[in-house]
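During the reporting period the student researcher (J.K.) took over the structure-prediction task from the postdoctoral fellow and processed the backlog of single-chain submissions. One of the processed entries is reproduced below for the supervisory committee.
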Amino acid sequence: MRSLPLPLALTARLLPVAVLATAGWMLASGPSATPAAAEHRAADGSDRGTKSGSAPSTKTVTKTFTAAPAPCGSITEKSVKSLVPGAKTAGQEIASTDKSVRRTCSWNALKGFDYRWLDVSFEIKPSDDAAETAFKQRTGEKSGGGAVPGLGDAAYSVVNLTTADKQQTREGVVIVQASNALVTVTYNGSDFESKKAPSTDVINKGAIKAAKDAVAALEKAGK
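J.K. obtained the following structure tokens:
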């Protein structure tokens, strides 16, 4: 049998491969492989995507809060004056790309040589489960703290001391999960005359006090 010229022989060898590749692509990208098609079959009842006899999921998503409250109004004036002496009680809201999801307010002041900083942040998650997952992840990253009973669905507080150029700063962080919202309070202080920091008890109690104000404001806004 006379051999085919080289281009024709190469075409003959590659043609079956091209046909198989095209068929494979059609199988992989056809209606049966697309999420939209799977959803369509589930919607019309032709294919539920579950084992025979099993019922479709009926789990509901709980979403108590749909938007973050105004953060600068979440801490009472009395608390601001007590925790951050000399600060403007109105606070300063931090710019956010989406205020319905996350809002933060900050207060800071230097009175004499005593410096204090306080901020509160509200973050709205799609569901309680999502907020709980985020809470566990964030508290897991901050070791050495403990639970705060009676605050939200779950609350955690931790205090740390840092020293830079012989200047001490003590910072407390309280993270609260309340339904599908996360509330985070950061409170720290330094004394620039003594180079010392406020006690752990002062910072911890101050952070928890602010967190209680913030959770109360969140719950009020959600009603």
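The committee noted the following: Confidence is low (pLDDT under 50) at residues 1-59.
J.K. will present the remaining backlog at the next meeting.
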